[in-house]
Amino acid sequence: DYECISHYFKRNEDENSIDDITWNDLGMDAVFCMMNNTNSSAGQEYLYKMLREPVADAEKLHELDRLADEFTANEKERITIQKIFMNMGKSRKIAVTDYIGYIMDIEQGSNIVHYLAWVFLIASILVTVLVTPVLGIWLCIAAIAFSIITYYKYKAAVDRYFICVNHIVKLLMGAKKITALNIDFLGEYNDKLKNISEELSDITKRSWLLETGNVDGSIAEILLDYLRMLTHVDLIKFNNLIKLFNDKEDYIYELIDTLGFIEASISVASFRCMLGSWCVPEFRKDNDMQLEVRNVYHPLITKPVANSINTKHNVLLTGSNASGKSTFLKTIAINALLSQ
Q1: β-pairing, 307-311 with 291-296?
Q2: Looking at the DSSP assignment, which residues form a beta bridge with residue 285?
Q3: pLDDT reported for residue 57
Q4: Listed residue (62, 58, 32, 63) closest to 46, CA to CA
Q5: CA 56, CA 58: separation in Å to the nearest integer?
Q6: Who contacts 207 (Cβ-Cβ below 8 Å, separation ≥6)?
Q7: pTM for the full model?
Q8: What are 293's strand-pairing partners?
């Protein structure tokens, strides 16, 4: 699961990111698991990315702090948004960014065969009504057989991509619900999500006939299945969507970024409430390299011993075996990341 979650981060990994060896030495998967109170893949993957990419921009850090405080203070709005993210859901065994990558990698298919199935079926009906019923019935049987056989042949090649489209549509629907709430402290994000939704509105319109595996067995769903088999309408719409996805790739990633940041800030707020004690750090801008911490502790230890240190120089840490040297070093490193 962690490998899957990390794909979003690894898509644009740079030299300033926390490397795998350091990440594993610090036990950051466990820290991430403790923090991860997200309900969607977008939020989960963005939170992981935040921990792997240290930020030096004070403005971005203050914005995350502001949003976390707002969600803590506004419980009703927070719970409503959490329900929206829960409806978006988490993809299993695959990252949401992988969904996008898979769709971008496939080539747009031809609709000639699918339109041919339409022509064959309509022609056989016309022969039945206008020429001779006996010949027309046999042609109808042949047309239906041709439609069904070719449908499942072409559907098998793209079926797994239907789920990818469905998940992106869920993100879009969630974005529209968030903007509809018109929450004041999400002002700039509402504007951004509204613009993205408008740019990607064709994806929502063209995807409603795509079957995604979440069937409910209703009469309407059964009738839609027959409609898809006879007309190939879902395959035609899917082929048209492929070009649209390629044209709007940047907007799709911006959608994930925006939704992910909002839900990650909720997770940060939750993490703060769970901790016994925490503080907002001070990032100094002077040229003197100074580390000053008071009563710092390791978040994964149940009953931690808090320690303090204040230094402008390198430190040689000594002590007997099992005295806590490694734990203290990890504590400093983990809190340096969590301070952001």
Answers
A1: antiparallel
A2: none
A3: 85
A4: 32
A5: 6
A6: 165, 166, 169, 237, 241
A7: 0.83
A8: 309
**Of 284, 103, 258, residue with least CA distance to 178:** 258
According to DSSP, residue 184 is labeled: G
Q: What integer pLDDT is reported at residue 211 of this predicted model?
A: 55
CB 46 within 8 A of CB 264: yes
Residue 145 structure tokens: 């057989």
User: Looking up tokens 């789920």, which residue turns up?
Assistant: 163
Q: Write down the residue that tokens 């799709």 correspond to.
A: 252
Identify the pLDDT of residue 210: 65
Position of tokens 């795509």?
210
- Residues sharing a CB contact under 8 Å with residue 250, sequence separation 6 or more, in sequence order: none
Whether 248 and 53 have beta carbons less than 8 Å apart is answered as no
Terminal-to-terminal C-alpha distance of the chain: 24
Say if residue 17 is exposed, middle or buried (CB neighbours under 10 Å; 0-12, 13-18, 19+): middle
Look at residue 10 in the predicted model and tell me its pLDDT.
84
Can you list the residues of the chain whose pLDDT is less than 70? 108, 206-217, 287
CA-CA distances (angstroms) from residue 324 to 7, 150, 194, 330? Answer: 34, 67, 51, 10
C-alpha span between 74 and 275 (Å, rounded): 19
At residue 94, φ and ψ (nearest 5 deg) are -155, 140
Report d(CA 213, CA 295) in Å as an integer: 52
Name the token pair of 25: 């030495």
Q: What is the reported pLDDT for 109?
A: 73
Alpha-carbon gap, residue 109 to 235, rounded angstroms: 9
